[in-house]
Amino acid sequence: MTEALEAKVWVLGDDIDTDIIIPTEYLALKTIDDMKPYAFSPLRPELAGQIAPGDVIVAGKNFGCGSSREQAPEIIKALGIRCVIAKSFARIFFRNAINNGLLLIENDGVQEAVREGDLIQVEPGKAITANGQTFPIASLPQNLLEILEAGGLVKAMRKKNGLE
Q1: Contact in structure between 98 and 72 (CB atoms under 8 Å)
Q2: Whole-model pTM?
Q3: Which of 7, 52, 72, 133 could be bridged to 56 by S-S, CB 3.0 to 4.6 A?
């Protein structure tokens, strides 16, 4: 996912940990689709049912902290979230998200510029535009872009090795 997009914003706060993204008790369910309805349930039980494909999450600092469960970015992606914009990300969550093909963008100004339900424009590697303000963003290294464009690390390696 490296093309420009316009999306509806869902605003979350600081320190959204993996137990908020998907609580431990739901990890025993068989599939990511089975787990999806419980995403963010400790914080906002209704949120998973309100997110529409193509939406964006804007959050504060330390998004994805806590345990390194791979299901957290998988569920966000399965909900149809196009990208997560946050002031900062937990390091292991960042890598798990990229490996699962979920675009993450660090920016420390967007959260204060938007309210839930706003529309924003995201040009990965260039800028985010929200409510008349433009926020420059850094581009990701080429190897990470290739993983995102392929839809995740496994798909990127299969493509690179001529298996797809």
Answers
A1: no
A2: 0.93
A3: 7
